[in-house]
Amino acid sequence: MTTEKNISDTFRAGFVAIIGAPNAGKSTLLNQVLGQKISITSNKPQTTRDRILGIVNFASSQIIFVDTPGIHKSKNLLNKRIVDQALMAVEDVDVILFMVDAASRNFSAEKLIISQLKKTQKTVILALNKIDLVKKAKVFELVEEFQTLHEFRAIVPVSAQKDIQVKNLIAEVEKVLPVSPKLYPDETFTDVSEKFLVKEIIREKVFRMTGMEIPYSSAVTVDAFEVEKRLIVIHASIHVVRDSQKGIIIGKRGAMLTKIGAKARKDIEEMTGRKVLLKLFVKVTKDWVSNARILTEFGY
Questions:
Q1: What angle do CA 279, 285, 288 make, to 5 degrees?
Q2: 8 touches 55 (CB < 8 A)
Q3: Distance (Å, rounded) from C-alpha 195 to C-alpha 33?
Q4: Which of 24, 38, 108, 157 is the most exposed place for a label (fewest CB within 10 A)?
Q5: For residue 82, what are the CA distances in angstroms to 122, 200, 229, 271?
């Protein structure tokens, strides 16, 4: 018979930073493990800009995943702050989960990350992601290559999107967590507010529905978030740096902005379980990506 003492002696809980190059699949993995979406995704790199906690409860463990922005060599102030967030997250966790896109390598980012890993004494697990897109022989080659680059506790080939070997990856993470009681209540699955998630949902739609230039010049602020009896009323602004970008996001006769709003509203309603009235505005906020004061106001 298993006693409460026995359970407490074997239960594990801890923080795990998911790090990697932009577009390595970090947010996709977090959403897959959680079984719900809290971290936005797109096929464009650098979609994630903020550190987000995703808390997952298992029979013998509680894993607090820290989804981080993609680590890369950066020039403008926004990207430097984003990378700094990712590197700072590594300092405050028990385990590091390094994700590599096996199908599309980012060698400069990998080199930068491995150089940072060599400076830490923390346990590092490597996840070779997107193995569904490469041949098995290539996966074996990558395992051998990375074994020479760093002393990883484990190397696990996975496909976060297809849920291939994700359970095996979780099992390796569980092994190296500290013995600890739960750090968060069972009902808590993230540390961010609904207002923050609304901002991220809107930003995801901008990333997914506009061209390459627009997403990296855009930010979203939630200006009003009012919960009524049967309705949530949200006013949000999409900020861009030029008038031409504003025209693209609004679209001909407002068509693009309407599409962004409709898709965002659907996701927000699914997340909150309530009807949503979403009003979107597009504003030109010149040079916000390099203005320290505005970046701070926008939460970066």
A1: 120
A2: no
A3: 23
A4: 108
A5: 22, 15, 37, 26
Question: 32-89 pLDDT, tens per residue?
Answer: 988 876 664 445 444 444 567 889 999 999 999 988 766 645 555 555 565 566 566 6
Integer CA distances (angstroms), 110 to 49, 154, 260, in order: 19, 17, 34
Which distant-in-sequence residues (6+ apart) come within 8 Å of 253 by Cβ? none
CA–CA dist 39, 203 (Å, integer): 11
Q: Which two tokens stand for residue 229?
A: 């009896």
Q: What band does 2 get if pLDDT is binned at 50, 70 and 90?
A: very low
Domain architecture of the chain: domains with CATH: 4-176 (3.40.50.300), 194-297 (3.30.300.20)
User: What whole-number distance in Å separates Cα of residue 146 and Cα of residue 150?
Assistant: 7
Q: Which has the closest alpha carbon to 18: 31, 8, 29, 10?
A: 29
Give the C-alpha separation, 157 to 136, whole Å. Answer: 10
Residue recorded with tokens 């290539």 = 138
DSSP character string of the chain = ---HHHHHHH-EEEEEEEEESTTSSHHHHHHHHHTS--S---SSTT---S-EEEEEE-SSEEEEEEE-PPP----SHHHHHHHHHHHHHHHT-SEEEEEEESSS--HHHHHHHHHHHTT--SEEEEEEE-GGGS-HHHHHHHHHHHHHH---SEEEE-BTTTTBSHHHHHHHHHHHSPB---SS-TT--BSS-HHHHHHHHHHHHHHHHS-SHHHHT-EEEEEEEEE-SSEEEEEEEEEESSHHHHHHHH-GGGHHHHHHHHHHHHHHHHHHSSEEEEEEEEEE-TTGGG-HHHHHHTT-
Measuring CA to CA, which residue among 26, 3, 38 is closest to residue 267? 38
- Which structure tokens are listed for 140? 């074996």
